Amino acid sequence: MLSDIEIAQGAEMKRINEIASAIGIREDELEPYGHYKAKVSEKLYSRLAEKPDGKLILVTAINPTPAGEGKTTISTGLAQAMGKIKKSAVLALREPSLGPVFGIKGGAAGGGYSQVVPMEDINLHFTGDMHAITSANNLLCAVIDNHIQQGNELKIDQRRIMFRRCMDMNDRALRNIIIGLGGKVNGIPREDGFNITVASEIMAVLCLASDISDLKKRLGNILVAYDTDGKPVFAEQLGVCGAMTALLKDAIKPNLVQTLENNPAFIHGGPFANIAHGCNSLRATKLALKLGDYCITEAGFGSDLGAEKFFDIKCRYGNLKPSCVVIVATIRALKYNGGVRKDELSAENLTALEKGIVNLQTHIENMKKYNVPVVVAVNRFGTDTDNEVEFVENFCHKMGVEVSMCEVFAKGGDGGKDLAEKVCMTIEKNTENNFAPLYDLNISIKEKIQKIATEIYRADGVNYTAQAEKAIKEIEDIGFGNLPVCVAKTQYSLSDNPSLLGRPENFKITVRDVRLSSGAGFIVIYTGDILTMPGLPKKPSAFNIDCDENGSITGLF
After folding, report:
1. 434 burial class (0-12, 13-18, 19+ CB within 10 angstroms)?
2. How far is CA 548 from the centre of its chain?
3. Among 161, 443, 445, 549, which is least packed, fewest CB within 10 Å?
4. pLDDT at 471
5. In the prediction, which pLDDT does 503 show?
6. Residue 160 burial class via C-beta count within 10 angstroms: exposed 0-12, middle 13-18, buried 19 and up
């Protein structure tokens, strides 16, 4: 059996100008990065401004498990399947982060015969967006420390600097550091630390900005510190937003690539869903809606994180109205939620499946709260038995949702035609779009958290540390209490405890800290022990990756 990278390397890609032309992008609107990837220019947005939007399809999932779900594989396979049934669809996905690529998760370009290509480029440096975001982030950090060194006109309290440095790699040693050592010439010593780039507020700003002017405005709105009088200090006061925008002027342009079956795909932006808002850029999604009858996009991890943030944050800022939600699951993952060990998932176990399917049930119920129709996509494995398949199908039918057994990993678009047809049929049946966010922005921060915790996570309530209570009061006192909230929570459970699988009961969410991301336009709620700078495992994926004398890469997945 061929590996993912071997399948990708054997793909018959079309030149990127052919992919662009097929969806109506003109040559002068394309900025090629080699033969098989390109950015699109601002001219395209202007030309398409009055064109009506297509239908928006969000792909989400149950809570991830070691058994694997394959959300990006299903997203890509659905786009390929749409082509097979003669529908015009454009895929819009996030860019992978180098942290997971070299860490434990691996790449994020799909799998098997449902991938986006060139797979190596997408998973590595791609078009340099991650590096541009990292540079803009660290320019702001350097200017903050230089301002303090050069007299500190703004009276920045070095104990209350809210903005941290970043790098796009897992490195636990950089979570908490001391900078400025070595004498007066090397700056003012203080505590600092690094986030991974995909957790940087700059990433969130880039992904939610409507255009370059909005990008510059949002950069200026970033809360960087408090002064010695307790007043907020914003990035615009440091005079560096123009330079940051210059670093990001190309990064804000979406990247066009293709699937293995030559379907168009935008890969742009990559905020983590367990830390940030977990969606590709708003600009790429809006562009895909203009260029196809259907836009297929995805939100990170389970629907309790990615989809909730997609609906309550991204859809608000983009005025988006999804027409359908696809929830990805595997029978193996449902059995894992029912208590089966990873090495025993291949054996039929209807008892565990019945116990674990409550996780899928919760995600279906949650998505219906947004008034969006649901289709379940089961990423089928060869070990799934007919009895298990029948059980899942009957369960979904009882819940009133369509379900499709997908084989896109093994068969590409042909393995997803049933899913594509059911998605299109579901959209056609639901002619009225009644989508609505979960909560009103005018309620308090605590009320927003309470609503998500009780209605999406199914918690009994919320506990707050003293630090969180203080932070909430401060944010509301300076006038930012009306922003949406972005919960940083473990992806492995509906609760904030990763060991509680299935549908946990009798628990409360604990909020340990709250941070204002005023540039991005949301408030980050930290729960559990979630980290904004991951670490490497004992045997990281980097050990398996190699490059020969001809520049051919192996071991990437």
Report:
1. exposed
2. 32
3. 549
4. 96
5. 95
6. middle
Residue 95, helix vs strand vs coil: coil
Q: Is 350 exposed, middle or buried (0-12, 13-18, 19+ CB in 10 A)?
A: middle
C-alpha angle 81-87-89 in degrees, rounded to nearest 5:
75
CA distance from start to end of the chain:
14
Residue 111: helix, strand or coil by DSSP?
strand
d(CA 165, CA 474): 23
Radius of gyration in angstroms for the set of CA atoms belonging to the chain, rounded to a whole number:
23
E strand residue ranges, 392-484? 402-406, 462-464
Low-confidence ranges of the chain (pLDDT < 70): none
Q: Nearest to residue 286, comparing CAs of 392, 360, 214, 375?
A: 214
Q: What is the pLDDT of residue 66?
A: 85
Query: What is the SS3 string spanning 180-200?
Result: CCCCHHHCCCEEECEEEHHHC
Q: What is the pLDDT of residue 447?
A: 98
Exposed, middle or buried, 335 (CB in 10 Å: 0-12/13-18/19+)? buried
Q: How many angstroms separate the CA atoms of 273 and 492, rounded?
A: 12
pLDDT tens digits, one per residue of 488-530:
999 999 999 999 999 999 999 999 999 999 999 999 999 988 8
Please write the tens of the pLDDT for every residue from 48-98. 999 999 999 999 999 998 877 899 999 999 999 999 999 999 999 999 999
CA–CA dist 351, 330 (Å, integer) = 16
- Backbone phi, psi, residue 23, to 5°: -110, 15
pLDDT score recorded for residue 226: 97
- Can you read off the two tokens belonging to residue 76? 């890509």
C-alpha dihedral over 22, 26, 30, 34, to 10 degrees? 50
- Given a contact cutoff of 8 angstroms between Cβ atoms, the answer to whether 90 and 124 are in contact is no
**489 class by beta-carbon count within 10 Å (0-12 exposed, 13-18 middle, 19+ buried):** buried
| Three-class SS state of 223 | strand
* Type of residue numbered 290: K
Residue type present at position 369: K
Buried b (16+ CB within 10 A) or exposed e, 218-233: bbbbbbbbbeeeeebb
Percent of the chain scoring above 90 in pLDDT: 90
Q: How far apart are CA 106 and CA 99, in angstroms?
A: 9
Write out pLDDT tens, residues 459-491: 999 999 999 999 999 999 999 999 999 999 999
Residue 346: what pLDDT?
93
CA pair distance 295, 287, nearest whole angstrom: 9
Spatial separation of the C-alpha atoms in residues 355 and 357, rounded to whole Å: 6
pLDDT tens for each residue of 387-410? 999 999 999 999 999 999 999 999
Reported in sequence order, the residue ranges of 162-271 that DSSP labels E, i.e. its strands, are: 165-167, 177-179, 190-192, 194-196, 223-227, 232-234, 255-259, 264-267
